[in-house]
Amino acid sequence: MKEKDDFFIGYIDEISNKTKVTLKTFVSLSLGFLILIAIVFALTQNTFKNSSFELTTSTKITGVYHEMPYPMLKVKTDKNEFKTIMLLGFGKLSANPFLKKIKRQTPNLSGSMLSIEGNLIYYNGKTLLQITSDEKITLLEKANPNRVPKAEYIAKNIELQGEIIDPKCYFGVMKPGNGKIHRSCAVLCISGGIPPVLATTDQNNISEYYIVTDLEGKPINKAILPYIGKPSIVSGTIYKLEDWYQLRISTNHIKELHLPSNIY
Amino acid sequence: MGVNYQTVLWNRNKKIYDRWIGLSMLIYLISFIGLTFITNVQTSVETLIIRAFGTLAIVLLHIILVIGPLSRINTRFLPLLYNRRHLGVSMFLAALIHGGFSLFQFHTLGNVNPIYALFSSNMDYNSLKNFPFQVLGFFALIILFLMAATSHDFWLKNLSAKSWKRLHMMVYFAYALIIMHVFLGSFQQQPSLWSTAILSFGFVVITALHISTGSKERKLDHIKTTDTNEGWDYVCDIDEIPEDRAKIFIVDNERIAVFKYNNKLSAISNVCKHQGGPLGEGKVVDGCVTCPWHGYQYLPHNGQSPPPFTEQVSTYRLKLIDKKVYVSPKALPEGTEVDPVIFNN
Amino acid sequence: MTSGLRKTHRFIWITLGLLVSSLIALSTIATKKPLEIDKDFSVVSKHKTQRAVFEDAYFVINLNEKNELNNLEIILKKPLKSASSLVYGYSNNSKNLLGSIDTKGRYTFTIDKLTTSIAIYDEIKKTNIAKIKL
To answer: How many whole angstroms separate alpha carbon B250 and alpha carbon B219?
Structure first.
């Protein structure tokens, strides 16, 4: 018997059996591939860290305000215990635009007691606060220079290996908040005034974080932009600022850290 | 065949096709999102969406790109080609969610314009390791957007078939950009043997399919006549042409189709006016040559689409000497009526 | 397709085949091992005189009994989800502030022999993090 000459026409409902078999095979194989690829891409993701960003919860903190050189609030947690919380603004901005109003009312803000309401960001022992409205900052006590902490010199010409990250994303807002994928965002954040931080780790996986400033301890947001988000070797002078470290550098002393190739 | 421009001329096949597209996308998203939640629970919602839709778009693009060559290898894949456009638009939507979210996540709420930030936040254009991969994704998304926006036949008519085709062939360039977007982006931060292998395999398959199909077609393009008779070229013996089907031949470097139907012979251009489909691989149905790709029709004796449609193709004169079919190697203007050669069995 | 279009396709695919293959190879070769800055603290085995008290996904707690006071060692393996972590020792009725822990690592506190349990409290979020019996 002569084989039926089947021909597919889209707007006619009939499809020959042989074509149906081909289509069913194609669709089944495609679904199989789809699931395989979902498995591969899902399982090869790096493990996300348990950093937190309390976007929907407001927390009120009270403490001593200081800028050395970036806005911080030293909060007392118990007798002789305190936590220095880094202050940040909304989006990719620093806290400075949000502090303008209260600075106009109280020109000398360093050493004063403030109460600030905002969203907490925290990870691995570091805590930050996102301020979203300048209405949420209240002055409790005027400036008292005795309250302002002093930066304590530790050592100079120290070489550290790590990555320069933006603390807002790294400590909670984005996952991952470091690396090449996140680099553009980190550059934008630091360009917006957020303090650059060098995130390091030692051979026991103990992390230490250094707030980066220029050689005089002043903000270094612009000059550091090309070095953000890449494995680096940074040399500078270390200062201790209560429970944060400070690294004073010149961008001449940032070198690329050459990591071993991934394939050989 | 759009006379009045409806958004979609729905029929049963398109509905089934679209349901499968929707179902597949859903299965992928559920698998990816579910697996991530189970094995990597600290993920953030934005990262999850960006990765789920980005990887979905890549998979869909691979499926779209194999359909073309597969249909040349075996005509049973043609139903996949029929509604491929819907697949393309769906893939663009997935890519748009990925790109849109990424643009919002990484480049907005800063102190500069997001598009400016996208291009200038990472200026290491001279390094592979540090290359600003997001720029590649951005350009690919633009191409896919232009293609999706002009995917309707309305644009095919109004942009001229040539420009439209040129625009839509940019999909290959977008594909290359997307592959490099992944290799210079995600794979630099999360290198993994499996994901590298799978994406490379996808690229190899698609390239191999296209090149091998191209080689096969090239052989066909080099068909030459073996006999000439007073300036007419010998095509084939009349028995070589199946009933209601055609023999494809080359005249003046272009393909023509010689149809045998109802004891008659007619020759028309092989290239359908809609999307360039191979009319010679079509069939005469209800007295009309029907294109195998989307079912556009032409009357074999004058190359014109039956009213109310207006497309028309060139026709050619034929003559039959004994059992040999000859064609006059000069294309007649589109829509020219040519008396079909009538023969007795 | 017209012959021109076929030619264009062939040109595009041979170019892409060569170009993208080389770029894939080059970018794979250029890939470096990622900088790992978020791995869990690698715990060193405990000292002979220490007694293991508690272990879970986050903590390894060891007690070193000395003459008058005890040394409490808290090893934090992975970061706590906490904005501040104060450590308190509980003995019968009294509550004693021992200190605070922040980044993952090893911490030592001196406690008296009467301390029966410790608690970790987040003063900023006003939430309890953990309560562990010794």
So the answer is: 12
